Amino acid sequence: MTAVIEVRDLTKRYKDTLALDAVSFDVEKDTIYGFLGRNGAGKTTAMSILTAQNFATSGSVRVFGEHPYENARVLSRICFVRESQKYPDDATARHALAAARLFFPHWDQDLAERLVDEFQLPMRTRIKKLSRGQLSAVGVIIGLASRAEITFFDEPYLGLDAVARQIFYDRLLADYAEHPRTILLSSHLIDEVANLVERVLVIDRGRIIMDETTEDALQKATNLVGDAAAIDAFLRGREVIHRESLGRVSSVTFVGGLTAAERGEASAAGLELAPVSLQQLIVRSTQHATHAPASEKEEVAS
Amino acid sequence: MSAVASSPQRHNRILNVVRLQFINKVTYIWMPLLVLGASWVISILIFAMIPLDGPKYGGGAQAPLWAFMAVGIQAMTMSFPFSQAMSLTRREFYLGTLAAASVTGVMLSTVFVVIGLIEKATDGFGVNGYFAYLPAVWASGWWAAWITYFVITMFLFVIGFWSATIFKRWGTLAVTLVLTGLGLILVGVVFLITRLEAWPATWTWLVETGPLGLALWAVPAIALMALGSYVTLRRAVA
User: Fold this and answer.
1) A112: closest CA among A128, A132, A94?
2) A128: nearest CA in chain B?
3) What is the pTM assigned to this prediction?
4) Does B70 touch chain A (CB under 8 A)?
5) Mean pLDDT of B116-124
6) Residue B123 pLDDT > 90
């Protein structure tokens, strides 16, 4: 695999906070990454530095083997869709898309027009009068239709309803299948994007804590469903990540896999293996003693 | 070698920034023209009301120039973040934006000169009032008036743009400090002239140099400020 992005010891310090703490990772070509982490974990900062919109305190960043700062060769091949993108005051969505067409060499006008229809985006309304969801749609359309070799989506779905988000995920996958490229999708709707992302890059308090394929990540844990008492007998001191109960039935996720013998034992006890939730796995990995787990679950559920 | 290979593309990208800025047609075309037109109409109405037979001169033509300082501010605050989303380098954005401002400057200066020529031909719209045809500015001809107006336009644009960039990078306090600093320098110059008892010489110089000469003197000042803007922008975060 070839790395299109190489990050080494990247540190970003704001006045009193360390946003990125000596972070190192590679991003492989033609792969969809889930760039996951809590608010304030450093996702936006990292993406801003990778796209030369912000500056590193120390460390190095290479995109297509070069430094991206003031480098039109590199920048013309990437696209960064921000959650809080600002547009010129008078601009309508029509203007914004026309501008994007000027600057992104692989721009697909047909795709852009189809997406405008699907998101029902008003083209002649000033962008500052659009709803939050429509504003997000402008960014999503630019990000998809620009077909840049590396596209960064920073929580692009704010204000989009479930239907619109599904349109985004579907179109992203369909277009990616036809035109493979590298996509970094930052999100805290982890389960929603779990089926989409091939690799997960989890950042927590300025450090990368997980960098592996989604499949490998999910194999780190096991989820058993069945009689609560039977599961409890089965756990034998394993580290429980998540537990849900309804009456006598429990669903418990715990760290580690099962041996063949244990699988037999589980099915004999009437327990079923169920898919592990990536969200639960990551929430667990990024939970800190100072924060109540409950509030976190609410946030991701909303 | 790679710089040579990619230069045509860069060239295009800078031209496209001009087109990007002109998305704001209100900011770059209609607002300055409207201010110019409005101050013109108001000036004529006032001229017509003044019961004086001699030629009347007004300073209303400076109104759009001040408006253009606001354009400089908006070019930075509104278009810079979007230019970043369009994957432009700061350099491409800056050169394209200066080019866009020049286009508007050319437009405004041309309208100014055309108004002046009309005033000259119609004896001040029949009310002997002059909004654009100011003797000192036109002393060396219409082209001198054009250059003077254009230079002042760019001067104010660059000031507006630089102030906004300083604000983006360091906040309100920095802008205040810079403006206070400039004020202090100005007071220093006044003090020096007074101390050297050089006021008569200064006035003579100013009169002899005239608006065109002063405008030409302003060109290196603009170039310096433009460079300062660029250096400030290079590390600015949208």
Assistant:
1) A94
2) B78
3) 0.87
4) no
5) 90
6) no
Residue A281, domain extent: 219-301
Domain end position, chosen among A217, A232, A257: A217
| Chain B residues 93-112 within an 8 A CB cutoff of chain A | none
Question: A287 pLDDT exceeds 80?
Answer: no
Nearest beta carbon to residue B91 from set A70, A102, A142: A70
| Neighboring chain B residues of A104 at a CB cutoff of 8 Å | 86-87
CATH code, A261: 3.30.70
Domain count across chain A: 2
Interface size between A and B, measured as CB pairs under 8 A: 87
Banded pLDDT at B129 (limits 50, 70, 90) = confident
B10, B27, B86 member nearest A90 (Cβ): B27
Taking only residues 133 to 192 of chain B, the set having a beta carbon closer than 8 angstroms to any beta carbon of chain A reads none
Cβ contacts of A147 on chain B, cutoff 8 Å = none
* Nearest CB partner across the interface for B79, out of A54, A88, A142: A88
Residues A32 and A130 in one domain: yes
Judge if A235 and A105 occupy the same domain.
Answer: no
Q: Do B9 and A72 touch (CB under 8 A)?
A: yes
* Interface confidence (ipTM) of the complex: 0.87
